[in-house]
Design a protein that fits this description.
Largest sheet: 7 strands, mixed
Number of helices: 0
Helix content: under 10%
Number of strands: 11
Shape: globular
Order of helices and strands: EEEEEEEEEEE
Length: 116
């Protein structure tokens, strides 16, 4: 019913920046939360940042001040601006659309490697 297509990952040096994008298509419902998760090597998937359709945001403490989530509801797109990247940010980043009883969807993941 819903497809999420992610882009923007890649190799970046410590201190660098990347912007991830996720475009949602299909039967998207109005009341939802879009979020970015990541899975670091050897660790479980964890929330990075989330934003509701009406603009409420949350960023976990490890990225607060460096990462910023944003949404363009007209384009059904969520972004993650990632600044001052650190080696600990190396992970596969996943886009999530949570429509509660009307579905919970994941993107395919995009890899971010922070290394010199």
């Amino acid at each position: 019913q819903v497809q999420l297509v992610e882009s923007g990952g890649g190799l970046v040096q410590p201190g660098g920046s990347l912007r991830l994008a996720c475009v949602a298509s299909g039967n998207i419902r109005g009341g939802n939360i879009m979020a970015w998760y990541r899975q670091r090597p050897g660790e479980q998937r964890e929330l990075v940042a989330a934003q509701s359709n009406d603009g409420i945001t949350n960023h976990v403490s490890s990225v607060r001040g460096r990462f910023k989530i944003s949404r363009d509801n007209a384009k059904n797109t969520v972004y993650l601006q990632m600044n001052d990247l650190k080696p600990g940010d190396t992970a596969v980043y996943y886009c999530n659309l949570n429509q509660f009883t009307r579905g919970n969807y994941w993107g395919q993941g995009t890899r971010v490697d922070v290394s010199s």
